[in-house]
Amino acid sequence: MARPPKRRLVERLPVITYFKPQGIPMSQLSEVVLTVEELESIRLVDLEELDQEVCAEKMNVSRPTFHRILNSARKKISQALINGLAIRVDGGNFQIALSSFLCGQCGHKWQGTFCHRHTKCPQCQSKDWKVDQ
User: Fold this and answer.
1) What is the CB-side half-sphere exposure of residue 10 using CA atoms within 13 A?
2) How large is the average pLDDT for residues 96-108?
3) For 33-84, how does the pLDDT look when each residue is reduced to its tens digit (9 = 90+)?
4) How many whole angstroms separate alpha carbon 25 and alpha carbon 43?
5) Nearest-angstrom CA–CA distance, 112 and 98
6) Residue numbers of the domain that contains 124
7) Name one Pfam family in it (predicted).
8) Which of 51, 41, 46 is nearest to 72 (CA)?
9) Which residues of 21-49 are buried (b: 16+ CB within 10 A; e: fewer)?
10) Is 80 part of any domain?
């Protein structure tokens, strides 16, 4: 019997989960589905510019597994851009990682899951916070 796959750690859920080519009605579009962990791999490597080994550790997977996730994400994004497909971010095998936060107002530090729209300092209710590395 095969071992069940490990859940990948993801720092945050995407705020926007659907992208489509401009000017094409939804009824005429095909789409590719990008999993949440595939989007996370793109964020870590291409946006945060982290080394793949560091990314694999952050997502709690082996380096070869991370490489496969990243390649799958890049292939899907390329297909969508070249062929004019919509991209829907949905599903996957993941869990939200705990993040450390620092309040810019009162200096309070706390841990929780990242949700940009709803996160407030639990001590002073300020929205002036940042992710504490």
Assistant:
1) 23
2) 87
3) 999 999 999 999 999 999 999 999 999 999 999 999 999 999 999 999 999 9
4) 28
5) 5
6) 99-131
7) DUF134
8) 41
9) eeeeeeeeeebeebbbbbbbbbbbbeeee
10) yes
Q: Can you tell me the distance from the alpha carbon of 86 to that of 32, in angstroms, rounded to the nearest whole number?
A: 6
Same domain for 37 and 23? yes
Q: Residue 23 has which token pair?
A: 């000017």
Q: Report the first-to-last Cα separation within the chain, whole angstroms.
A: 40
Is the domain of 107 the same as that of 58?
A: no
> pTM here?
0.78
Main-chain dihedrals φ then ψ at residue 9, nearest 5 degrees: -85, 135
Q: What is the DSSP letter of 11?
A: S
Q: Are 78 and 86 in contact (CB under 8 A)?
A: no
Do the Cβ atoms of 88 and 29 come closer than 8 Å? Answer: no
Q: DSSP for 31-73?
A: EEEE-HHHHHHHIIIIIS---HHHHHHHHTS-HHHHHHHHHHH
Same domain, 25 and 54: yes
Lookup: tokens for 92:
């996957």
The closest of 20, 14, 18 to 36, measured between CA atoms, is 14
